[in-house]
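Exercise 7.
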Amino acid sequence: MKLLEVYILRRIFQMFLVTLVPVLTIIWTIQVLGRINLVTDSGQSMGSFATLATFILPTIIPVVLPFALVIGITQTLTAMNNDSELPVIDAAGAARNIIYRPIILLGIALSLFSFVVTNFVEPPSRVAARQMVAAAYADLLSSVIEEKTFRSIEDGLYVQISERHSGRVLKGIFVVDYRDPNFDLIYYAREGSIDATGTTLTMRDGEVHRKAVDGRISVIRFVSYAFDLSAMAKSEGGLPQYSTDRSLAFLLNPDPNDPLYQKSPDSYRAELHRRLSDWLFPITFALVSLVIAGNTRSHRQRQVHPMVYALFLAFAIRWLGFSATNLVERHPLYAAAPYVVPVAASLIAAFMLATNRQFSTPAFIGRGLARMGRSIQRRFEAKPTSGGGTA
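Solution. The predicted structure, written as tokens, is:
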């Protein structure tokens, strides 16, 4: 690679990282704060919380990465144009490949990285996070809940215990379950225990009060009653593995006897095509950014920053990609749609680069922006002074 290509690649990669890290941190923080109850409710350590936060990170990177690349390319090329670096390169008779090659290579490298993360890192991370949350909430009753204190396990489920003994034995168990809208359940048992797996609460010598919507109440006494805690783990995203949690090998050859696959085979088909098409967007966005910001422009002209156009097109293409994936879930005939969106955009951008065509704003958009600019300028013009003569 030539010295000038290395220079361009280094500048774009630095701007890409400067954009990626803050945006990724903000989105990651929002996602992590949504799970802060893992620490506050289940008594987990901050180390466990940090581990869970790390598992969330691979689910965010493939989404943010292509847009950070758009910003890195357009901002770097615009700065080089304003500093007269691009005009000097053109005046020296250098081929446009000197600018195109490092950007396309970076787009290909990030596409491959996105493919690896989406198909081989993200699914195990999702499973690990779900198992961690399930284990934390399954252990909540036996080791965390304070004696003689009501605790909310999840929305509509409250538990109180009078005493906790060794061997996961509990005394004076009181459970209120409002999760089913058709009836309310109240359990009381003299004693109970949590099994070794933490998925079942066995209550002994107690009764169940069931109140229907019409107000009728039925009371059932029991000698032994098993309360399923795995349902609680499932509501928190624990034990079952859905299409987004499955490996690429499973999606390519799903088990027809899998109960979740039998329930929703369309979601597995859509997830497969999503994973095999999403990794194409970094290279697509790199080509689109080159079309918009890769040519020499006069920076003395008043114009919208190329980044605005590039991000607008990137969001539009990404939205079409999401829509195409949803179509696949509706009917298998749309299986090619997720690939058509990035491939078609890439071919159009590559054609424009090969024929040295420049991106130009449509006339009606240019007129609209001009009118908007004049309107804003009039609003900020000097306002008339208030009345009152001078002495």
